[in-house]
Amino acid sequence: MRCEICGKEAKLKRALVEGVEMLVCQDCSKYGMVLPEKRASPVLKPKKKTLPYSRDVFEEMKQELVPGWGKKIREAREKAGMTREEMGAKVGEKTNTIAKIENEELRPPDATVKKIEKLLGISLFQEVEGGVIKKKEARPLTLGDLIKNEK
Ligand SMILES: [Zn+2]
Description:
Bound molecules: zinc ion
Number of helices: 7
């Protein structure tokens, strides 16, 4: 019998490597979870391993503002015949904070953005599926990648 990972002729163990049951040698068994000799209860199905998303991907998944959001806010406010002061009072921000937001000097917190959206009837958040789509387009993981990811 040969190890299914390195091909070495050795005494093999059954191990669960990334959800796939394999016969591996002692050395390679560390890449997975060694299974007991007797089949464990069938309830213990191998769990699909969640992809190790990087922190960056999580960052990308935050709500993004549309390009030119400051201008969009200003135009919508002017269209509504509202002064910065009036708008500030309605969304709970100071007049000069509104000015900074309109100049994109200040990225308002999501809660404030939502208030502005509601007040002016505009939408300021972008669809943020970009990060996820990027992930889907990635080439399928090879066993080598999976082993690297284990570390
Ligand atoms: Zn091996």
